[in-house]
Task: inverse folding
């Protein structure tokens, strides 16, 4: 049975869907939810699900990324994860941290990578006049929002869409895509998933 640590920074809606999906004959189970934000709403949702939680406040480390990541690894290690799932985790990780978990760390990004790496993805897609948007689950490598793509889900951009209305439409697909990709990844299968 694979053990999955989920990293969050906010509400944790993706975390909830991932945790809820890991039941029955699923080859993985959640072993920890950790946040860099002590007040993250996802921590209370994780506790309500009976999951172990941890907090490593990045603000306590100022600009010391290595110090923060060493503390993060120290908080994670006792839970012996086989896989790390970044789910709304909003810190850029250094090559040291990524290397520590090379080949077993996933992230979900709210765009159709390689388009729109970085932030404000929905606003950028709307302003570009794109007909479609979506989300991508990828393996985390030292290249920001790079790494092999393990799944994508597409949604239409509709007339009158705002970044908020588009984000809400994409989030529904995130909640379908990420659990499907995690299940396949935990079974050792890296065949990409395309939705719809
Ligand atoms: C989602 O849009 C996700 O794509 C991004 O963070 C946002 C919030 O996710 N990574 P969650 O509700 O905290 O899972």
Result:
């Amino acid at each position: 049975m694979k053990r999955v640590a989920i990293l969050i920074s906010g509400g944790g809606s993706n975390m909830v869907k991932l945790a809820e999906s890991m039941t029955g004959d699923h080859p993985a189970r959640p072993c920890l939810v950790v946040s860099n934000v002590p007040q993250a709403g996802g921590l209370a949702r994780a506790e309500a699900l009976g999951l172990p939680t941890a907090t490593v406040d990045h603000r306590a480390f100022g600009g010391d990324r290595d110090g923060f990541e060493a503390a993060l690894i120290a908080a994670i290690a006792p839970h012996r994860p086989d896989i790390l799932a970044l789910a709304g985790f909003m810190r850029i990780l250094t090559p040291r941290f990524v290397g520590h978990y090379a080949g077993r760390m996933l992230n979900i990004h709210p765009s159709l990578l390689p388009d729109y790496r970085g932030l404000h993805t929905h606003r950028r897609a709307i302003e570009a006049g794109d007909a479609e948007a979506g989300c991508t689950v990828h393996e985390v490598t030292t290249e920001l929002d790079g790494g092999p793509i393990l799944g994508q889900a597409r949604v239409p951009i509709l007339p009158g869409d705002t970044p908020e209305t588009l984000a809400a439409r994409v989030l529904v697909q995130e909640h379908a895509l990420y659990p499907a990709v995690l299940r396949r990844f935990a079974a050792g299968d890296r065949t990409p998933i395309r939705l719809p």
Q: What stands out?
A: The longest helix spans residues 163-186. Residues 8, 10-15, 42, 87-88, 108, 110, 135, 167, 171, 174 surround 5-O-phosphono-beta-D-ribofuranosylamine (CB under 6 Å).
